[in-house]
């Protein structure tokens, strides 16, 4: 359709169904209580649709659209004849009633089977107008020749098509509308496409009901009626020609408004992100608010997408072929934002719980809180994904099957990572050690510095940092030296062989007395005995337990006891041996005899 012709149609046929959805839930500006217009007295928006058969469905469509046209024509004629910028209270009431009547008329279509994410009252109204305009362009058979339910049931048929078309009315076989004859969802999806295919060629002009329905639909599709509650309708119908240029079946003013809204939304999102980053860095100033800083960006994204979705649907009123992909994109963004909000909220709640409980942020208890809330967030996110996919038109069983297959693929590809996560979870539940404990895992020994979801970090005694996968911890024997009640000291005191037995006995008794009286030793469980005859020493076994809280205190008390043992040995004149070996030669093997034999 040429742009000049479109503009002319908008202005010439304003008295048609111009304000069918003009009053989009707004109250009269004057504040007066609206009265029910007399023109609507013969029709109630609460009257149920008649869908007893194809004939009744089509007849009801004719009746309701004609009634709406009569109601709004009279209302708009009165408005245009006045010099008021905005409609009166009674005119608003009539427009609202027309909208309610159109909502009821939309029940003639199986819109419930369409993707719920792309549906709205505005969408249902536009599809109703498109359906009426399309039927008006066809050579419809007389109503009396359209079969009723009894005829089709006798023929064992559950659907009927308008002759020569693919417009189909089908009997609902299940659901809350079982038994009703409705225009099918597949028909509703293709209405804009079929309507464009039946565009008059050349200079052919539509006449009668087809012309009225066509002009009303075009006016509703292209005119900025969604702005009428704010901007006077008279001004909206006099937009400059450049703003009415058509691209992808949308006027230029619509694209311009969308671009402005998108720029504003992106700018707002960027500002919120900066504030979020600033808040996250203020842990010293506001430690309780810092965890919630990361939640601001996804919440802002969700709100911005909601505003864009609502504005695009209810105010800008994009139509085919842009409406469905644009609204589907916004819906997808909104579900992504909700998943993001869920994940960020779980992290913020976890950090708040850890902070309020004064838990170590890297302790097992802290990690267990994080892991539990993250698992909850994963299940909630899966629910959001399934619901979102269903509302976008994907069957729930397909989504579940896809998630199952994807889960198996991920499990096979990342089985080591999953094993590490499960190992970390079991470690967090059983708590075999904590941060700060001295442990041995296989050949690795050190102090636990961090317990994560994939691995654990040990600080060795030569100050290196070793990362141990959680799955290795699960499969290995862990010796937790930090959980000892008492710490054993076991060594051998090597005394020289020239120590007299009496002095050796005195030394042993002195060491026993030292262990017995030392404040850090466990009484009654020590051993100080002559244990063995070594190659170069008399070996005295020294074994006792220290009652100390940690490794550092253990080393200090061990040093104190060993120093006292040295003092005791010095006092008694006992010397410690060092490795020696005495070699003796037999008389016949003297070196001189061998030399003389060689000389002879």
Describe this protein with a few key phrases.
SH3 type barrels; alpha+beta; 600 residues; disordered N terminus; 18 helices; 5-stranded antiparallel sheet; 13 strands
Question: How is this structure best summarized?
Answer:
This protein has 600 residues and is an alpha+beta fold.
Question: What are the SSEs and their pairings?
Answer:
Layout: H1 3-12, H2 54-81, H3 89-105, H4 121-137, H5 149-154, E1 159-161, E2 168-171, E3 181-183, H6 185-197, H7 208-222, H8 233-236, E4 246-247, E5 250-251, H9 252-280, H10 296-316, H11 323-356, H12 364-391, H13 396-413, H14 415-430, E6 438-441, E7 444-451, E8 455-459, E9 465-469, H15 470-475, E10 478-480, E11 487-495, H16 501-517, E12 527-533, E13 538-546, H17 551-572, H18 591-599
Antiparallel strand pairs: 1-2, 2-3, 4-5, 6-7, 6-10, 7-8, 8-9, 11-13, 12-13
How far is the first residue's CA from the last residue's CA?
135 Å
Average residue-wise pLDDT = 79
Count of domains? 4
The biggest beta sheet reads: 5 strands, antiparallel
Number of strands: 13
What's the helical proportion of residues? 40-55%
Uncertain spans, ≥5 residues at pLDDT below 50? 1-41
Number of helices: 18
Quickly give the structural class.
Answer: alpha+beta
């Amino acid at each position: 359709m040429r742009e000049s012709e479109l503009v002319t149609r908008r202005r010439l046929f304003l008295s048609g169904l111009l304000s069918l959805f003009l009053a989009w839930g707004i109250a009269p500006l004057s504040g007066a209580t609206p009265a029910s217009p007399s023109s609507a007295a013969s029709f109630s928006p609460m009257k149920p649709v008649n869908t007893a058969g194809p004939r009744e469905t089509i007849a009801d469509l004719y009746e309701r659209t004609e009634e709406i046209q009569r109601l709004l024509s009279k209302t708009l004629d009165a408005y245009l004849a006045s010099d008021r910028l905005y409609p009166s209270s009674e005119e608003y009431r009539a427009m609202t009633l027309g909208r309610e009547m159109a909502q009821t008329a939309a029940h003639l279509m199986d819109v419930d089977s369409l993707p719920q994410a792309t549906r709205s009252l505005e969408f249902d109204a536009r599809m109703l107008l498109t359906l009426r305009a399309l039927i008006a362009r066809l050579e419809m058979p007389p109503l009396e020749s359209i079969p009723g339910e009894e005829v089709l049931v006798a023929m064992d048929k559950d659907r009927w098509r308008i002759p020569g078309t693919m417009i189909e009315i089908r009997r609902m076989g299940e659901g809350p509308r079982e038994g009703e004859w409705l225009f099918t969802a597949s028909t509703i999806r293709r209405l804009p496409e079929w309507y464009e295919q039946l565009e008059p060629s050349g200079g052919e002009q539509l006449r009668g009901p087809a012309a009225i329905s066509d002009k009303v639909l075009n006016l509703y599709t292209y005119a900025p009626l969604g702005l009428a509650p704010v901007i006077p309708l008279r001004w909206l119908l006099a937009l400059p020609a450049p703003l009415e240029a058509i691209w992808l079946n949308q006027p230029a003013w619509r694209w311009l408004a969308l671009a402005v809204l998108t720029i504003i939304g992106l700018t707002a999102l960027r500002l919120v992100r900066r504030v979020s980053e600033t808040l996250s860095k203020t842990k010293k100033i506001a430690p309780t608010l810092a965890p919630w800083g990361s939640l601001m960006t996804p919440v802002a994204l969700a709100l911005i997408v909601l505003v864009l979705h609502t504005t695009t649907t209810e105010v800008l009123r994009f139509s085919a072929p842009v409406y469905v992909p644009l609204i589907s994109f916004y819906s997808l963004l909104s579900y992504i934002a909700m998943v993001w909000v869920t994940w960020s909220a779980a992290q913020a709640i976890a950090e708040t719980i850890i902070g309020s409980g004064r838990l170590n942020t890297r302790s097992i208890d802290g990690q267990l809180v994080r892991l539990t809330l993250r698992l909850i967030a994963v299940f909630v996110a899966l629910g959001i994904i399934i619901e979102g996919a269903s509302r976008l038109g994907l069957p729930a069983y397909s989504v579940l099957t896809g998630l199952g297959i994807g889960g198996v693929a991920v499990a096979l590809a990342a089985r080591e990572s999953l094993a590490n996560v499960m190992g970390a979870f079991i470690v967090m539940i059983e708590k075999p050690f904590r941060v700060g404990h001295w442990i041995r895992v296989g050949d690795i020994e050190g102090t636990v510095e961090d317990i994560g979801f994939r691995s654990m970090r040990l600080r060795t005694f030569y100050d290196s940092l070793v990362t141990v996968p959680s799955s290795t911890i699960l499969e290995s024997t862990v010796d937790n030296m930090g959980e000892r009640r008492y710490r054993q000291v076991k060594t051998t005191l090597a005394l020289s062989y020239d120590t007299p037995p009496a002095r050796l006995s005195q030394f042993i008794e002195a060491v026993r007395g030292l262990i017995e009286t030392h404040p850090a030793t466990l009484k009654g469980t020590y051993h100080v005995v002559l244990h063995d005859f070594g190659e170069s020493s008399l070996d005295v076994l020294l074994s006792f337990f220290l009652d100390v809280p940690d490794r550092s205190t253990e080393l200090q008390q061990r040093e104190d006891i060993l120093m006292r043992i040295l003092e005791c040995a010095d006092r008694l004149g006992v010397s410690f041996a060092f490795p020696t070996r005495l070699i003796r030669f037999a008389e016949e093997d003297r070196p001189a005899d061998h030399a003389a034999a060689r000389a002879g």
